[in-house]
Specification:
By secondary structure, the chain is of the alpha+beta class. About 35% of the residues lie in helices and about 25% in strands. It contains 18 helices and 30 strands. The strands form eight sheets. Strands 11-15-16-23-20-19-17-18 form an eight-stranded mixed beta sheet, with helices on both faces. Strands 1, 2, 3, 7 and 8 form a five-stranded antiparallel beta sheet that branches. A five-stranded mixed beta sheet has the order 27-24-28-29-30, with helices on both faces. Strand 25 and strand 26 form a beta hairpin. Helix 1 crosses helix 2, helix 3 runs antiparallel to helix 4 and helix 11 crosses helix 12. The longest helix has 22 residues. The mean pLDDT is about 95. The structure holds one RNA strand.
RNA sequence: GCCUUCGUAGCUCAGCGGCAGAGCAUUCCCUUGGUAAGGGAAAGGUCACGAGUUCAAUUCUCGUCGAAGGCUCCA
């Protein structure tokens, strides 16, 4: 199912499209309205975004959502004036500075130019400086202009900015840095036609119905309770079943590929994480420490990740090059104290289960093993029906000091990932700053119902933890060598993957995944026994390594009612059993997608499932 | 954590300074049926929690907790 998106269908890049210009102009028109309405408002930036635009502004008084209406109204008035818009080049920074300070619109000037001047300063000498230049001549022939430092491009007149809507308010840090002041961000959306705008708003409403939190409750997959705590999901029978099915599938694939299962504890001494380096990077993101009864003898923390445990297991014995690669897999439940504002249903929870594994390999094996893992990850997504993903190679941010290990290691690991991508002919985007603190990684990114991107499967190459833990194996030469680690999780986490899948399928999971695959519907009470019998018979059938999951709806309701309810619960097949069927030895089949398929023998139905 | 918005029955929501409402779900009764809601009745609430203003607060104000959207972060 496609995410909400209203980008042009043509091959044309969004940045070159009319829609992009339109939204850009809408943003600046909003800036003009704000300047008129709120004396002292400081403008910063207002770019178009995927489905609209925003503008970050510092307001003298906190802005409330009711204000949006007022701003929208003024924008409409300004738009109607048919003001000519141009993107004009400015020859020098000095001239640009003058333009910013000499705004004719009241309120603009030194006191409110703070962010604009900073933006101007950031422009490299020699680079082209351009301004949004909007002008009109009033009845008396007087010229009114509104300038705004801007890269462009724009539409030709404000009257083209007709079909727009201001959506919401948010805080956003200046230049994306928490240390800076938080500005007020106004989000809006704009379209060429009224119909497009309405369609977009309609699509947003539809997307909200696919929200995994709503479907999760409606379908009985999982729930949250304030008494349990933020970000801590309770898995209901159907959701737990879904998890088991997914785990079975992955486990089977892992056994085929030589993975071995391990199980590790939920808490560990803090020493383990001091050794790994996680404590320094993530000390604020851990649940409170646990202390020994007799004081400071030892401190324990709730497991935030599995790697160090697997490393301990690797290290527990002498390893020969003949033993490698070693592949340890675990569905490891971890807890991380995410900031309250970051928690999003099961897509970002405080407790979650990773389909984790760590491979310990020799340098010679690295590429082959890495490719093997990426291929497994792609196979997993393919099986789940998620074809719409992008590949991101997260590398070190050269300006940050949060990383451990030597540059040589980083270079080797990054090169290994890129070489493997090239060898596989895979499209990828390099994203500096998106590496883990111990190494670069390859992530598969998928969008949710609202078009937000989420990191799903991940594969990471790590030279640094083996070094910190002094991991070794004995080589052919009889000398100790250092293995390389591959961290990987094809689903990412069970929670996030199930959340995404729920949204992708709008709850109508494919047959092999559906928590309830078949419901048997007896028409009247006298058919209940036959229905139970049929359900029991079906439950003996092995499908895709598991017994069929069958329920019986023997409530005293009409058939129509039962069908409706089961359809709402997205059950793939309903088997209807009444007098006619019992007499003829058939069963009425109803498919979730195709509706009534008519009567069929039990055997024919089974064959149709294959 | 920060900005904005929201919290009324299990769910979806209406209401509002003066006795707490509807639909669905639940329970019971009637109905025993053939492909998307059969009929009736009952039960269900400290209007998230705590303070304040008021003769009177579910309604207004403040605080706490929880949730949603965004920012930051994401081993």
């Amino acid at each position: 199912m496609a995410a909400v998106s209203s980008q042009p269908k043509q091959q044309e890049r969004y940045e070159d499209s009319y829609l992009y210009k339109l939204r850009h102009s809408a943003a600046h028109l909003m800036a003009q309205a704000v300047q008129e309405l709120y004396l002292g408002a400081k403008l910063s930036i207002g770019p178009p975004i995927e489905n609209g635009f925003y503008y970050d502004i510092e307001f003298p008084e906190p802005l409330k959502e009711d204000d949006l209406e007022k701003i929208e109204k003024r924008m409409k008035e300004l738009a109607k004036l048919d003001q000519r818009i141009q993107c004009i080049p400015i020859a020098s920074k000095g001239e640009a500075r003058k333009l910013i300070l000499d705004q004719e619109i009241p309120g603009m000037g030194e006191a409110v130019a703070e962010y604009k001047l900073q933006l101007l300063d950031a422009i490299k000498d020699g680079d082209q400086i351009t301004f949004y230049d909007q002008q009109r001549t009033d009845r008396e022939g007087k010229l009114h202009r509104f300038f705004d430092l801007c890269r462009g491009p724009h539409v030709d007149s404000t009257k083209e900015v007709k079909n727009f809507k201001l959506m919401s308010l948010a805080g956003a840090y200046w230049r994306g840095d928490v240390k800076n002041k938080q500005l007020t961000r106004i989000y809006g959306t704009a379209f060429e036609t009224k119909e497009d705008l309405e369609l977009h708003l309609h699509n947003l409403d539809e997307a909200k119905k696919r929200d995994h939190r709503i479907l999760g409750r409606e379908l009985g997959l999982f729930m949250f309770s304030p008494r349990v705590g933020t970000g801590l999901a309770l898995w209901l029978p159907k959701g737990a079943t879904l998890r088991h099915v997914m785990q079975d599938f992955l486990q089977k694939e892992q056994v085929r590929r030589g993975y071995e299962p391990v199980i590790t504890p939920q808490i560990a001494s803090i020493k383990l994480y001091e050794k790994s380096g996680h404590i320094i990077t993530f000390k604020d993101k851990l649940f409170p420490f646990m202390h020994d009864e007799d004081g400071d003898k030892d401190t324990y923390i709730l497991k935030p990740m599995n790697c160090p445990f697997h490393i301990e297991i690797y290290q527990s014995q002498m390893r020969s090059y003949r033993d490698l690669p070693v592949r340890y897999a675990e569905f490891g439940t971890v807890h991380r104290y995410e900031q309250s504002g970051e928690v999003t249903g099961i897509l970002r929870a405080r407790g979650f289960t990773q389909d984790d594994a760590h491979l310990f390999v020799t340098p010679d094996q690295l590429q082959e093993e890495f490719i093997g893992v990426v291929e497994l990850t792609k196979l997993v997504l393919d099986k789940l029906g998620l074809s719409d993903y992008r590949v991101r190679v997260g590398t070190k941010d050269p300006n940050s000091d949060k990383y451990i290990g030597h540059d040589d290691n980083w270079e080797a690991a990054t090169n290994a990932i890129i070489a493997a991508c090239e060898k596989m002919g895979m499209e990828y985007v390099i994203s500096p700053g998106d590496a883990a603190f111990y190494g670069p990684k390859l992530d598969l990114i998928i969008k949710d119902a609202l078009g937000r991107e989420w990191q799903m499967g991940t594969v990471q190459v790590d030279y640094n933890l083996p070094e910190r833990f002094e991991l070794e194996y004995t080589g052919e030469d009889g000398k100790p060598h250092r293995p390389i680690m591959i961290h990987r999780a094809p689903f990412g986490s069970m929670e996030r993957m199930i959340g995404l899948l729920t949204e992708q399928y709008a709850g109508a999971f494919p047959f092999w995944l559906a928590p309830v695959q078949i419901t048997v519907l007896p028409i009247a009470d006298r058919h209940n026994d036959a229905a139970q019998e049929m359900a029991n018979k079906l439950r003996e059938v092995i499908y895709d390594t598991r017994n069929l999951r069958v329920s019986v709806d023997d409530r005293r309701e009409t058939l129509g009612k039962k069908i409706r309810d089961n359809q709402m619960h997205k059950v793939p097949y309903m088997l209807i059993l009444g007098d006619k069927d019992i007499e003829a030895g058939t069963v009425g089949i109803r498919s979730r997608e195709k509706g009534d398929l008519g009567a069929m023998s039990y055997e024919d139905f089974l064959v149709s499932l294959e």
